[in-house]
Amino acid sequence: MMANEMTNMDRAKAYVEASNARDLERVEAMFAADAEYVSTGAGSHTGRKSIRTMMDNFFAAFSGLIWVTQDWHIDADGAHAFDFVMTGLNTQSGEEVKKAGHERIWINGDGLISRIEVRA
């Protein structure tokens, strides 16, 4: 599938795929310059660079992070939403981490992520 043939659902799923691959360069390129990222665990971040810094710190704090997703759907407000279970290893304590949550991703007219909301 050519990039311009991707649906917004494909783009949202590609974001999770890139996150699971720890490909933060690819992840960063998926965000609009003025994107917002709001998370119960990681706080609120505005702007592609701020989001990238948060993600660099988050991925440094955990190794082997994997998000297993289910129940992908589009909410009435246009968010591409899914439930997830995130697993990994805390690099400081060595403890295994397992968190369930719900994520919502909005894609703008340019095919870039404009907002993400995460509840975990």
Question: Which word captures the global form?
Answer: globular
User: Briefly, what CATH class?
Assistant: Alpha Beta
As residue ranges, the low-confidence spans are none
Which strand order do you get reading across the main beta sheet? 2-1-6-5-4-3
Provide a count of the helices. 3
Strand content: over 45%
Distance between the termini: 32 Å
Helix and strand succession? HHEEHEEEE
For the sheet with most strands, the description reads: 6 strands, mixed
Per the CATH scheme, the topology name is Nuclear Transport Factor 2, Chain: A
Q: Please estimate the helix content.
A: 25-40%
Overall number of domains: 1
Oligomerization status of the protein chains = single chain
Radius of gyration: 14 Å
Counting helices, strands and paired strands, the structural category is: alpha+beta
Can you put this structure into words, describing what you see?
By secondary structure, this protein is α+β, with helices and mostly antiparallel strands. The protein has a single domain (3-119), classed as Nuclear Transport Factor 2, Chain: A (Roll), CATH 3.10.450. Helices cover 28% and strands 47% of the residues. The protein has 3 helices and 6 strands. Strands 2-1-6-5-4-3 form a 6-stranded mixed sheet. A hairpin with a 3-residue loop joins strand 1 and strand 2 (43-46). The protein is globular, with a radius of gyration of 14 Å. The mean pLDDT is 95.
